[in-house]
Task: structure prediction
Amino acid sequence: MTPRLVRVLLCLYPRWWRQRYGEEFKQLLAESTGICEVADVFRSALYERARSWVISKGSQCSFRTVATRTSAFLPIAMSLTALAAVAFHVVIYGSAREPDEGAVAHIWQILMAGQMPILMFFGLKWVPRAPRQALPVLAAQAGAALASMAPVFFLGL
Amino acid sequence: MHGHYSDPPLLVLASLSNGPKHGHAMIEDIALLCGTRLGPGTLYGAITRLEEQGMIEALPADDRRHPYRITPDGLELLRARLSVLNRFARAGMKRLESL
Result:
């Protein structure tokens, strides 16, 4: 490979990687020929860059940072509010199924459906960046949602 | 792909099991060992992971190139992986013989 191509390919790697392996990798590339090697280095450089990005983003985030995002606790709060609404209905009116959906049923539906886009936003934003911190939060969100659905299904409301 | 084995970290460990080598020597050795020619990016990706995991370590630079050496943990991992592969290969060959 020409020195210019070697420099370009090396620039694709993250800085820490170039500092650690740059000199010896440059020598190896200078001895390499062929488009397959270029493609291999290109693919590997993109992988290292993506991996560095994920690791750096992940290491910057503590569990507290992730768990205190609005998109983390709002779905849990919505599920718990929906659960409280169902409990209130059962305590006041009993668990008998009513022919018409009342205000409580509408509130429950709005709260459960309304948290879906927030859940998706949280999952798409935080799972790739900090999976170790985001997955317990997602589990808590799913647990809260299931808890608010359980009485509706088990009591046949 | 027929007959070629491609598990870059295992190939690197196997190559270093008979002594320290730098990148170019590893590529040539692996090609001799199993016919797989690793690309430079793939090789250094495997070296990066193995060094992070403490399976190999760099020796002082020799003409700007670091030779790498397998560590005791790396040897243990290589033994374990090769024995699994050995069992797999023997069981597979036995099945082929019975055809």
